[in-house]
Amino acid sequence: MSGIATMPTAWVWIHILAIAVATYALRVSFIGLFSYYEVPEGIKDQMSLIPPAVLAALAVPPLFYRDGGFYLSPLNPFLIAGLTAALVAWRTESLIGTIVSGFGAYFLVTTAPIA
Q: Core-most of 34, 38, 58, 85, by most CB within 10 Å?
């Protein structure tokens, strides 16, 4: 025995289905609620900040953390590529330019010989 407890396949699917139903119910509740009531402007303004906050929460940690620890180094290729892409995005507001500059910086940093 490996010592790892396993769950029967039926229970896994029951859990997946329960999570799907809960997610669907939560989304439908907001759609139903906001179809009857007008959302105040202050809440609309705050809700517009959610997508950038979620994107930052997903994208920034991999730039600074490696192997379970904080990795702030000038040799960190992810950090260099991320900072390059952020600078290009800020200056040009070009999605394609941001993607190309980030990938290009990562490629250059990882393939360049270190003296």
A: 85
**pLDDT-derived band at 2, boundaries 50, 70, 90:** low
**Residue found by looking up tokens 């940093």 in the block:** 109
- pTM score, whole prediction: 0.60
Beta bridge partners of 66: 69
Strand partners of residue 69: 66
Nearest Cα neighbor of 78 from 67, 89, 62 is: 62
Question: CA–CA separation, 10 vs 107, rounded Å?
Answer: 45
DSSP letter (8 states) at residue 90: H
Does the pLDDT value for residue 115 go beyond 60? no
Token digits of residue 64: 């600074």
Which stretches of the chain are assigned E, i.e. beta strand?
Answer: 65-66, 69-70
pLDDT attached to residue 38: 84
Query: Distance (Å, rounded) from C-alpha 53 to C-alpha 73?
Result: 25
CA 78 to chain centre: 15
